[in-house]
Amino acid sequence: MQFKDIVGQTVTANHLTEIIDSGRVSHAQMFLGDTASGSLALAIAYAQYLNCEHRQHYDNAEGGLRADSCGECPSCKKFQQLTHSDLHFYFPNAATADVKGSSISAADFQGEFRDFLNANKQRGTLDDWYDFVGVEKSQGLIRERDADDITRTLSLKAYEGAFKVVIVWMAEKVHPVAANKILKTLEEPNPNTLILLVVESSEKMLSTIVSRTQTVRIPRLKMEKPAVNEEFNTLYVTWMRQLFKLNMASLSSWVDTMHSKSREQQKRFLLFAQEAIRDSFLRNNAGLPSKMDFGDEKFNASFPTMITERNIESINDAFNDAIYAIERNAYAKMTFMELSFRMSKALKKR
Hints:
This protein is α/β, with parallel strands linked by helices and 350 residues long. It is built from 14 helices and 7 strands. The protein is globular and about 65 Å long.
């Protein structure tokens, strides 16, 4: 991956190449930003530029790139194919129909992960990865075995490049035990090694890890319109309408639908619904324009009036409790049914 192939991140790319050219490469860095904005792609391009044998420098007076990897040397060609012997990936993993057992790790999915990166131009989301590899109801984690592999990998000298690079994608999914092992690696780095933590939320990382990394903030790309999740729209509108009727047969069917989804999809829906509630509250109480369209004019017009100062706090608490439960593998049917009852009660307090 070359910086020239990453759309909309020229300023960040110039900052990264300047760091390397000035010899200020920190052994541990955190690329903080949405994968869709190119955080993982930037990390890979950074590693490629670091190991490039013939770096190219340009006149960027017009606001273009100041430098980039050559794309032609043996190192660059291997990086572009994601096959360089000094490039190592770690990422959330879980049991699938093909890979089972209690000792799974990222090592069991290396080929699939590279195929995933190539298929999604290194911008795929965590849900995209789970769908690609066939993770069902488990939540992916970066495990203790992965942390042991990271420590072992970084203890070895670079084989054919100037730096040995470990990229940990979605590092907020590191298990606490594994996080403590990674922390020890960060505290005692070996020469010419680099660990890049690619994260979307630093708040979910151990503060001791965050404090030992150099943070590179990846700005969100400007979008003309937010992407519409038609499935979540339909689930949300159906759910809200059922909460008024509180027909147990219909509600139970809806809960069964949510139960059939993966843990990550359940959590994504809860976050989506919580944001929809917040959007309705701001529209109803602050007069702000709505950012969400549910494809139903009657619902768009009437539902926001149901979210008021009298119920927004209890609704938000209910969602936070449900998200917490799903993250800790609580029984999904019970979690969504309890949330539905709390929501129904809160909506009647408007």
